[in-house]
Specification:
Blueprint (H helix, E strand, L loop, with lengths): L6 E5 L4 H17 L2 E8 L5 H16 L4 E5 L13 H27 L3 E3 L4 H14 L3 H4 L5 E2 L3 E2 L7 H11 L15 H16 L4 H30 L1 E2 L3 E5 H5 L3 H16 L7 H12 L4 E5 L3 E6 L2 E6 L13 E3 L3 E5 L4 E9 L18 E4 L7 E4 L6 E2 L8 E2 H7 L12 E4 L2 E5 L3 E2 L11 E9 L1
Helix pairs in contact: 1-6, 4-7, 4-8, 8-10, 10-11
Length: 462
């Protein structure tokens, strides 16, 4: 996870897990030859309690003589929410909070030159996540749980360690920590799983239930990666695509094992619609029912997608022809500065040049890009930029990564479904991928203290 000479951004909430993580990394920093920078985001949910958490983290960083970045979220951010019951609103709120926190950590890491972001998830978090996703009806990808390394950026050094062992460690070190009052709120599903379900399973069924669940997640993660590769290869062999539909030989697709067939159906839906979002397990079951009918049939799915079985052919047909905005992904050129519409991707890309003041040289890229945007060294990325979908064998150097990596492996680690990978635009400078849009920039084009001009790339829906 960590190599000598790297700078690690340590995400510290002030709770026991992240406090133990920081303490352990400080213990090892000299021997491992690494630099540390502390990051804390105050979501502003708990008023004074949140402010005390932030102050605790500041003092903890000062005690270790470490730089610290504390971010704040305006409370107005949380006022708007989806309609529906309290459970749905809470779930949406937590999802937004996670997205904001990850964006804050990515931008802070880029700004301070950190090549890794360390998170304090434990073996217990792994077990809780698997149970929560099982209760939601997740498939194999969801049940694979928390990944130890994601994007060659996020690392979880404590993922094989039990929370009880961290608490014992902190007690021996006489290291205080903060306790989030919301962790006692049994209106939150995770808290009920942590405080009620897992203790009951341990007492009545298996004292080592946390270990058993964590091992199951590891096994499922390995199998998910393999089945995803098999499904992608099978789809490539059997599918025939035009601008208006994806077709399969009915006899060939009926002969597939059911587990593989479900994945092929999901890929076909995504390729036909341009995205998988909105296609549920119920829709997949409906397609399978049409497939199993001796007389064939047809069903309607979201976004005008129609699935028809008959005359020896299974068809996934859209009125718009292949994507949510009417066109399959294709190449385009973006002037610098300038903008370009990417109809096949359903996006518009804008490129702007920002002059950097000498006083900004040590402060990283400013301003930070918006959600899904990117900052690059403009002098390393002369325009125009080529935007295209991925191709077999594509490689790049993820920000902070140890070297060249296959794009396919990167997207697998990021848990991007197979059926959505073809809809991710790539920004190229010459023949090099400079940005996997919405995911990661190439390390060779990053902003450094020597950067004079910043290329700010921003995407927005068409």
């Amino acid at each position: 996870m960590i190599r000598p000479g790297e700078r690690i951004l340590v995400a510290v909430s002030g709770g026991p897990d992240s406090t133990a993580l920081l303490t352990l990394l400080c213990d090892a920093a000299d021997e491992m030859e690494i630099g540390l920078h502390v990051a804390h985001l105050d979501h502003g949910w708990r008023g004074r309690e949140s402010a005390r958490d932030a102050e605790f983290v500041r003092r903890l960083a000062m005690r270790h003589r470490l730089p610290v970045t504390v971010g704040h979220v305006d409370r107005a951010t949380w006022k708007a929410g989806p309609a529906g019951g309290a459970g749905r609103r809470q779930s949406s709120l937590e999802a937004r909070a996670r997205a904001i926190r990850l964006r804050f950590l990515r931008e802070t890491a880029q700004g301070v030159g950190a090549t890794r972001i360390a998170l304090g998830h434990t073996r217990d978090d792994q077990a809780e996540s698997l149970l929560l996703r099982l209760l939601r009806g997740s498939g194999r990808l969801g049940l694979a749980g928390i990944f130890p390394v994601v994007d060659d950026l996020f690392i979880r050094p404590l993922l094989d360690i039990r929370r009880r062992d961290l608490l014992a460690f902190l007690k021996r070190r006489r290291q205080p920590y903060r306790v989030d009052s919301t962790n006692r709120d049994l209106g939150r599903t995770r808290n009920r799983v942590r405080q009620g379900l897992i203790p009951r399973l341990a007492k009545e069924y298996n004292p080592e239930v946390v270990e058993a669940l964590a091992v199951a997640a590891e096994l499922l993660r390995d199998e998910e990666a393999y089945l995803g590769d098999v499904a992608e290869a099978t789809y490539g062999r059997l599918a025939r695509s035009t601008a208006s539909e994806v077709t399969f030989d009915l006899a060939e697709i009926r002969a597939l094992p059911l587990a593989l067939l479900r994945r092929i159906v999901r890929i076909a839906c995504a390729r036909s619609r341009g995205r998988l979002q909105g296609v549920t397990s119920r829709h997949v079951r409906q397609v399978l029912e049409v497939l199993s009918s001796s007389g064939g049939g047809a069903i309607h799915l979201p976004d005008g997608l129609r699935v028809i079985a008959g005359s020896g052919v299974l068809r996934f047909r859209t009125a718009s022809g292949g994507s949510s905005d009417g066109e399959p992904p294709r190449e385009a050129l973006c002037p610098v500065p300038g903008e370009v519409a990417l109809p096949g991707f359903g996006l518009r890309l804008r490129a702007r040049i920002l002059e950097r003041r000498a006083s900004d040289a040590q402060s990283g890229p400013r301003p930070a890009p918006g959600p899904g945007g990117a900052c690059l060294d403009a002098d390393l990325v002369p325009g125009p930029l080529l935007i295209r979908p991925r191709r077999p064998g594509d490689t790049f150097v993820p920000l902070g990564g140890p070297g060249t990596r296959k794009l396919k492996a990167f997207l697998i680690d990021r848990k991007v479904p197979v059926d959505e990978r073809g809809r991710i635009p790539l920004v190229l400078s010459g023949d090099r991928i400079a940005w996997v849009v919405g995911h990661q920039i190439d390390d060779r084009f990053k902003v450094t203290p020597h950067t004079r001009r910043i290329l700010l790339l921003e995407k927005e829906p068409r």
